[in-house]
Amino acid sequence: MIDVKNLDKHFGDNYVLKGINEHIEKGEKVVIVGPSGSGKSTFLRCLNLLETPTGGEIWFEGEEITDPKCDIDKLRQKMGMVFQHFNLFPHLTILENITLAPVKLKLMTKEQADENAMRLLTRIGLADKADTYPSMISGGQKQRIAIVRALAMNPDVMLFDEPTSALDPEMVGEVLALMKELADDGMTMVVVTHEMGFAREVATRCLFMDEGRIMEQAPPDEFFTSPKNPRLQDFLSKVL
Amino acid sequence: MEFFQNILNYFQTGFHDTFIAQSRYMLFIRGLGNTILIAIFATLIGVVLGILVAIVRVYSGQTGKLKWLDRICALYLTIIRGTPTLVQLLIAYFMVFAWIDNVILVCTIAFGINSGAYVAEIVRGGILSVDKGQTEAGRSLGLSASTTMRSIVLPQAFKSCLPSLGNEFITILKETSIAGYIGAMDLTKAADLVRSRTYDPFFSLITIALIYLVIVIGMNAAFKALERRLAKSDRR
Q1: Which candidate among A29, A112, B107, B236 keeps its CA 20 to 30 Å from the CA of A6?
Q2: Which pLDDT does position B234 carry in this prediction?
């Protein structure tokens, strides 16, 4: 589904990604961990071109998205993204946050989008918040709304950029639970996170990134119990 | 007693001479009409021009594209903000738009171009005050750069620059009072004309001062109301 070939990214003299090769299959749940500054968020943001790679190729569903001729807006509709700081639209109600993109892109009529949004909101138990504004709800609720907003586009893959890092500890659980539910429904997911418990439980594959490279990857059992790379051993000994 | 009688007489004749004689109130009404006409359309020109210039500048600053257009915009801002409005008005009337007969139209265009420069800087500040994550969220949903700008960034930018924008609109209204310099019959010019006929500055000048004041107070109230309405999404 996603193919990354020799991906390079540098900001001036700062080389953040150094020749990444990666293949993500439909239905996989890939969790990326690593120390801060290792390039994991940049890698994730390159996958939907929020960061423009300085070298290499990225293919998504058979199309090269790094090709300048590629219609990236079209492909982004199929790649949902969830941000650390939620990035809900503060001037719109919760319902409008969810329906904005499907309606503007003429994928649904206003009525269809409203209905779809209400169905999603009901599923996460926030239907009563439909007409309130983002400033009136908690961080955990915001992040779940942000996930639903991305889901409203019926994406083929969901990218999560440290979705729980900006949350108060007591709100982390509800967001992870929703993500786990998504995973159980078979969504393809790429998740950058520091939640090792989530990685162990939900991931089909864990990647360890350091200094702009993928240093090790393995299924979670092997990844956490018998890490081979000394950097990963060191990292895990600090976070577990 | 005689003292009060004199004052009453003065007010009566003054009022009569200033407003009633030769239907001079018509001059004030015509002047007010022109002032409002110039102010409204200059504001419209200023807003459209200002938003366009602001978008070009922000877009160019963020992507490095449209460099030459950005330079033209920067030059426009420098010239307009670096020279007196009255000088710009004279240049517009005697040089740039000398081929336009309608002096009200020339005033409107000149004030519009002038205001555009100030609106541009206000709007640019507003756009830059919107968190970058908003654009990223919009784009990540598949919205185009222009839809993201229109539906997500500009509404928020507008809200944050509304107080400065209101101030600018009030400034435009008051600045139109120099339109008389090129012979446009605005409110100030009308009052000055009456003053020169009656040899009594009091009634004509105080009258228009009050008219400007009332309009400005009204505009202020309208903007405050709009701010309150837009602030409803901030309530916790």
Answers
A1: A29
A2: 74
Report CB contact under 8 Å: B133, A85.
Answer: yes
- Cβ under 8 Å to B: A residues 63-92: 73-81, 83, 85, 87-92
Q: Which two tokens stand for residue B126?
A: 């507003």
Report the residue of chain A nearest B231, measured CA to CA: A91
How many residue contacts between A and B have a Cβ separation below 8 Å? 80
Distance of residue A225 Cα from the nearest chain B Cα, in angstroms: 36
Q: What is the dihedral of CA A59, A62, A63, A66, to 10 degrees?
A: 10
Note whether B151 contacts A104, CB cutoff 8 Å: yes
Please tell me which of the candidates B139, B151, B235 has its beta carbon nearest to residue A100.
B151
* DSSP assignment of B188-205: HHHHHHHHHHHS-HHHHH
- HEC readout, B121-153: HHHHHHHHHCCHHHHHHHHHCCCCHHHHHHHHH
Low-confidence residues in chain B, pLDDT < 50:
none
Q: Nearest CB to B140: which of A48, A88, A92?
A: A48
User: How deeply is A63 buried, as exposed, middle or buried, from its count of CB atoms within 10 A (0-12, 13-18, 19+)?
Assistant: middle
Q: What is the spatial distance between Cα A56 and Cα A176, in angstroms, rounded to a whole number?
A: 33
Angstrom distance (rounded) from CA B63 to CA A171: 37
Packing angle of the helix pair B2-15, B201-230 (nearest 10 deg) = 70
Long-range contacts made by residues B206-210, C-beta under 8 angstroms, separation at least 24?
Answer: B207/B18, B207/B28, B208/B28, B208/B31
Which residues in chain B are contacts of A148 at CB distance < 8 A? Answer: none
DSSP-derived secondary structure for A19-85: EEEEEE-TT-EEEEE--TTSSHHHHHHHHTTSS--SEEEEEETTEETTSTTS-HHHHHTTEEEE-TT
AA identity, residue A200: R
Q: What is the ipTM of this complex?
A: 0.92
Query: Per the confidence metrics, is the pTM higher than 0.80?
Result: yes
Q: So what's the pLDDT on residue B198? A: 87
Of the partner residues A50, A89, A105, the one whose CB lies closest to the CB of residue B139: A50
Distance, CA of A179 to CA of A161 (rounded, Å): 12
What is the rounded distance in angstroms from the CA atom of residue A9 to the CA atom of residue B137?
21
Residues of B in contact with A162 (CB under 8 A): none
